[in-house]
Design goal:
- The chain has about 500 residues and is α/β, with parallel strands linked by helices.
- It folds into two domains: about 140 residues, Chitobiase/beta-hexosaminidase domain 2-like (Chitobiase, domain 2, 2-Layer Sandwich); about 300 residues, Glycosidases (TIM Barrel), CATH 3.20.20.80.
- The chain has 13 helices and 16 strands.
- The strands form two sheets. Strands 1, 2, 3, 4, 5, 6, 7 and 8 form an eight-stranded mixed β-sheet that branches. It has an eight-stranded parallel β-sheet with strand order 11-10-9-16-15-14-13-12.
- Helix 2 links the parallel strand 3 and strand 4.
- Helix 4 runs parallel beside helix 5 and helix 4 packs across helix 13.
- It is globular and about 75 Å long.
- It starts with 7 loop residues before the first helix and ends in a 22-residue tail after the last helix.
- It binds zinc ion (ZN).
- Zinc ion binds next to loops.
Length: about 500
């Protein structure tokens, strides 16, 4: 990094802390060596009006860009917001579709982008820095620091993986999706955990699911407007319980035992020799794919499976059975016009010394899937740095392995925050597919903040042009949702566990 970096002034301003600090000029050049097209200059000594006296000039070959910015600035800033027009700016964004450039000074605001997508990211960057004008009782306009930025993403595919548990409020899911877009993720993989309201197979969910088809449609439309595509997931092999293994719950068999033939004894895996399983899963895939607005990807799960055990499945070699099952579903996903994704862990054998420090849950048989599965299945390699959560390794041999086998591979961290940036850099270096931040049951509190912030900085490759404050970003998302419920504020539902007052 060659820079005169003084982030302090900008970060303090963005967090809204009442700190009296000398004006600081923040100048960053080539903030990320892996993303040399990014430059950012933010002069926190000079705030300029961002209000009805301001004109925002948008330069973009897609006319929809200026219209999008106009309507959203109206939504965000109301009558005190700037006017927006199309025009030339003299700014030069990089050539890729998501790149943008922006400048803010006494003469107004300029945004240049190659697409509506790039223009959206520019608008988010600006919004994160706009604050209310000082000195009045209520807001009468806005101000923002003088700045210029040239920015583009490090990786093309930047996803967040979100789990719709029965315990998660639907509002929390919407907040997470909106926040992910605001932090410049462009995909959100949604795993239903027994909460998807299938019309075709209502037995496949818990009673009273909140992930209704109407809600999915609404969220997909919101995502589309905000620049984030929702990807559905079904666990098509292991994890068939739609519940965490440590709870021994089963979303289907606990309540509707008549569906037992579809699952292996115990219920963790689907029964792969039963032709009804393939039929049911295809019908569920079709239903969800349609409901999600026919997105370009579909995640088939496939993590943490165990060997098949039923008397019919054991007649076929396990690897052959599993390969036939996953390949069949992958082909079906492709017939719907989408690309299939699976988790990686069954493709790496326990006991193989090459994977000693890495996540691997397969055996010698399932490891052969790395040679037999169709090479266009995207392998989502989840590496969580178990045993060393502060790990900052720069090479990820499992990802290299899948790449060399011919698969598109995505790096998937979780709470190993230090590993995220090197992992994203490694994926870029080997020409990998993308980056998926998994969140599981930790979408709460400080971990929610760390997962979103560290992952967005890793995948986008920027330290400065977005997401300066999780707190402020989350609050803005709440404003957009017009939330009024106490439970939907902050990153925890309660300040004090309610049960504390019980006795
Ligand atoms: Zn079976």
């Amino acid at each position: 990094m060659k820079s005169k970096v003084k982030l302090f002034g900008c970060a303090v301003m963005a967090m809204g802390l009442a700190v009296v600090a000398a004006p600081v000029t923040t100048v960053v050049k080539s903030a990320d060596p892996a993303n040399p097209y990014q430059t950012y200059t933010c002069d926190t000594a000079v705030y300029v009006p961002f209000d009805a006296t301001t004109t925002v000039t948008v330069e973009c070959p897609e006319p929809a860009a200026a219209e999008w910015i106009k309507s959203h600035f109206k939504e965000w800033f109301g009558k005190y917001g700037p006017s927006v027009k199309s025009g030339t700016t003299g700014l030069k964004p990089a050539s890729d579709p998501e790149a943008y450039a922006a400048s803010v000074d006494e003469n107004g605001v300029k945004i240049a982008a190659n697409t509506l997508t790039g223009a959206r990211w520019a608008a988010y960057t600006l919004r994160q820095l706009v604050i209310a004008k000082r000195g009045t009782f209520t807001t009468e306009g806005f101000i923002m620091p003088k700045l210029s930025v040239v920015d583009r993403p490090h990786l093309e595919f930047r996803a967040i993986h979100l789990c719709w548990f029965p315990e998660v409020r639907p509002q929390q899911m919407e907040r997470s999706i909106r926040l992910a877009a605001f932090l410049k993720f462009n995909y959100a993989i949604i795993e239903p955990w027994g909460m998807y309201e299938s019309k075709k197979h209502p037995w496949w969910h818990w009673p009273n699911p909140t992930m209704t088809q109407a809600e999915v449609k609404r969220l997909v439309a919101i995502g589309k407007d905000l620049g984030i595509t929702l990807i559905p997931q079904i666990n098509c092999y292991g994890h068939a319980t739609s519940a965490r293994g440590c709870t021994i719950k089963h979303a289907m068999l606990d309540i509707t035992p008549e569906y037992e033939p579809l699952f292996e004894p115990g219920g963790w895996n689907w029964c792969l020799s039963n032709p009804e399983t393939q039929r049911i899963l295809r019908e569920l895939i079709a239903e969800m794919h349609e409901n999600f607005g026919k997105p370009p990807y579909f995640h088939l799960g496939c993590d943490e499976a165990v060997n098949q055990t039923c008397p019919e499945c054991v007649k076929t070699p396990n690897a052959e059975l599993v390969c036939r099952h996953i390949s069949g579903l992958a082909d079906y996903v492709k017939s719907l016009g989408a690309r299939p994704m699976i988790w990686h862990d069954m493709l790496l054998a326990r006991g193989d010394p090459r994977w000693k420090d890495f996540v691997h849950c397969g055996n010698k048989e399932t490891a052969t899937l790395a040679d037999t599965l169709p090479k266009d299945v995207i392998i989502c390699d989840w590496q969580y740095s178990y045993g060393n959560m502060k790990e900052a390794r720069k090479d990820w041999p499992t990802m290299k392995y899948f790449k060399e086998k011919g698969f598109p591979v995505a790096g998937c961290p979780w709470r190993n925050f230090n590993a995220m940036k090197p992992m994203a850099d490694y994926i870029s270096q080997i020409g990998g597919f993308g980056f998926i931040e998994t969140t599981w049951h930790h979408l709460r509190g400080r971990e929610w903040e760390q997962m979103f912030m560290s992952a967005s900085k890793a995948a986008w490759g920027s330290e400065v042009s977005h997401g300066v404050s999780f707190q402020r970003s989350l609050r803005l998302v709440g404003h957009d949702m017009k939330i009024t419920d106490y439970l939907d504020t902050g990153y925890l539902n309660y300040q004090v566990p309610p049960a504390w007052w019980a006795n």
